[in-house]
What does this fold into?
Amino acid sequence: MRVCVIGTGYVGLVTGVCLAHIGHHVICVDNNEEKVKLMKSGQSPIYEPGLSELMQSSAQSGRLEFTSDLAAGVKHGEILFIAVGTPALPTGESDTRYVEAVARGIGAHLDSSTYKVIVNKSTVPIGSGDWVRMIVLDGVAERLKSLVTAGGSSEPTKEMMANFDVVSNPEFLREGSAVYDTFNPDRIVLGSNSQKAIAMMQELYAPLVERKFAQDQSLPPVPVVVTDLSSAEMIKYAANAFLATKISFINEVANICDRVGADVTQVAKGIGLDSRIGDKFLQAGIGWGGSCFPKDVSALIHTAEDYGYEAELLKSAVNVNKRQRSIAIEKLQQELKILKGKTVGLLGLTFKPDTDDMRDAPALILIEQLNRLGARVKAYDPIVSQSGLSHGLSGVIIETNPEMLADGCDALVLVTDWQEFLKLNYEKMAKLMTNPVMIDGRNFLDREALEKAGFRYVGIGR
Ligand code: UDX
It folds into this structure.
């Protein structure tokens, strides 16, 4: 099928590249010329395992193109994905101005000869499906007006030009495993009131539904959940809010474990084996971050408020998370007492492993709080340290390897659970430190091994 993906941020690029890989002809549109140039040369602007390889093979097959020309993209696509950002405003609401601009742009380039499906892939406030339809129609009307002014009074009416439907198709991709998640989805959600649009989306996703690109192709087909527009939009918010709340729940349990002398990792195992609870997203630590959970939970709280409802549980999940980000500071104070003049080393900076994303990363708050308390902060991160991505980071010295990080530190805090941190030479690192304390902010390291290496090990809730 002919697909156009507008917006080559994290979601748009992964979606476009993967759809090209499964056999569709995809044009990705972005208004950032520099980025388009980079992608045309086969380079990915984001770090995501497996993405560059797929980009290059799809580009070679001629099924993946990049352009800044929206008109060309709209003309090409039978299915047009809107995948631009919806960042949080200071109030917690989503900023939908980019979606609006794209919808208007699509309208301005639509013609009535071919039916098009416009897909909302961005996480948009509930009710946006109908709103996007309205904006696209406005774009169509503006174009008609300019045509009429140019002298063609017998041009088609706005309604005649409205040969399209809107579908909400939320993504559930995790950063760091987005390519894997695309080929191995738990479900595909399609919201629309148009049977025709749903049928086209089912055709688009058929190879994924049949698991043709999945790791385990013997599994039954991927469930496709077909709903109305608003329910599909709500599914995205509810899924993220549930997962964020689940983490806040286990973090609260961890804080109680700390006080009563229980071990939260064993508690999580014990409750996770109950199939009604499940063992995923029960890893206690220094809290959730990233580009989705904080933004989406706040947006849902805000939507509820718009309708006069106070989302108390969600507000508590956010508050527990806020408090959790200071837990490493509390533990450092317990170990070192006064932090002023001490040197603290952070192992990891990104909000989670296998990504270069620092958005809402717990490390940022830690750096700020440590600086405020007069500590000197150093950090090593496998991606940030190697790629010079430290731009915009202040109040922290970036080291190029873990041993240089350990040198002269009064304590280390493991902030991100990068696999390579399991294999560091902790014995050597302990010797290089002024005071070998390890605050394991993700309960990730082996306590016994660390103690054997000479560390005093402090976990979260254990
Ligand atoms: C999330 C959702 O998982 C994904 O479905 C959605 O599309 C986007 O948001 P992502 O933000 O990439 O994905 O990361 P995820 O792996 O879900 O982790 C989010 C945060 O929770 C990270 O900061 C992570 O460290 C933290 N986390 C996760 C925990 O603290 N404990 C856990 O058990 C799991």
The chain has three domains: 2-227, 236-323, 325-458.
